[in-house]
Design goal:
The structure is a homodimer.
Chain A (H helix, E strand, L loop, with lengths): L8 H10 L6 H11 L4 E3 H11 L5 H13 L4 E6 L2 E5 L6 E5 L4 E5 L16 E14 L4
Parallel strand pairs in A: 4-6
Antiparallel strand pairs in A: 1-3, 2-3, 4-5
Helix pairs in contact in A: 1-2, 3-4
The first copy, chain A, binds a DNA duplex through helix 2 and helix 4.
DNA sequence: TTGGGTGCAAACTATTTGCATTCGA
DNA sequence: TCGAATGCAAATAGTTTGCACCCAA
């Protein structure tokens, strides 16, 4: 039942170092889980995953680590649900579907969504990122 | 210093009734504040505004009322900050700038942002809404 | 060694809920 | 009158913080 991780520890450590993150045991553990594949996880899920695997990460460290990874560009924060933050291990430019019924967050594949061009920004500001979220719901089966 | 409300109580009550909302004293009070002009407010701000004006609305009622208004289409919830929900009294189709430094939320005027077309939705789902948020930050004045 | 990292529990904050009281129709 | 709406306070849940201990460099 355990997930096979296509990324080995050495590569993960290298990736953390490149991002300027000291590769501690817990950070590597969390990174292994997250970078195994593109996924959307909450802090709670990361905590559960990490401790199912080998119980050595505290809640505080999970929050610290996710925040740190996000600030270093290793993860992308996705704000779609007021009750929790999602972290997306796919940091490339892309957008999301959010199923408001199931709470599920999905990548929108490819270039199917493109903004024509950015509107004029307010004076003294610069763009930091563009989030496009298409909220979807289950079609009621008539 | 007090804001002049361009909407009178009678009109506000009419608007609530049209939306299927029983116009109670507190709901009218809150509606008057919100519909006076297009704005982005948090529950906390509404509570403060309502009680500065005439102290007769409780915290629970503010949350109940904002949630109700949103579900009836009188307000639009905007999720951009994990720490709180914004309510937008402009319910027409439009998108937002979010200044991550100041926490300020602004409408993007006009048609300057348009999605080419919606991508194919996951099977069994239908679109409920599209949110475009351009996160901006203060340009560091070199 | 030694300063950054971690764990634990307590603190915080936005929001929700239960229940008794009050109000709109 | 009577069910819906409100107020209050307590409960909840996600996240943050303070501080002592530990480990990566």
């Amino acid at each position: 039942m355990s997930t096979v991780l296509p990324t080995n520890r050495v590569d993960t450590i290298e990736r953390l170092k490149s991002a300027g993150v000291t590769p501690t045991q817990q950070r590597v553990e969390i990174a292994q889980l997250l970078f195994a594949r593109h996924q959307h996880v909450s802090a709670e899920q990361v905590l559960a995953m990490a401790n199912a695997h080998s119980s050595v990460v505290s809640k505080a460290t999970v929050y610290n680590t996710l925040g740190l990874f996000a600030s270093k560009g290793l993860l992308r924060e996705v704000i779609v649900d007021p009750t929790k933050v999602f972290y997306d291990s796919n940091t490339s430019e892309h957008h999301h579907f959010y199923n408001v019924d199931s709470g599920e967050l999905m990548d929108i594949q490819g270039e199917s969504v493109q903004l024509a061009d950015l509107p004029e920004l307010p004076a003294g500001t610069q763009a930091e990122g563009v989030d496009v979220i298409i909220r979807i719901k289950q079609t009621p089966n008539s």
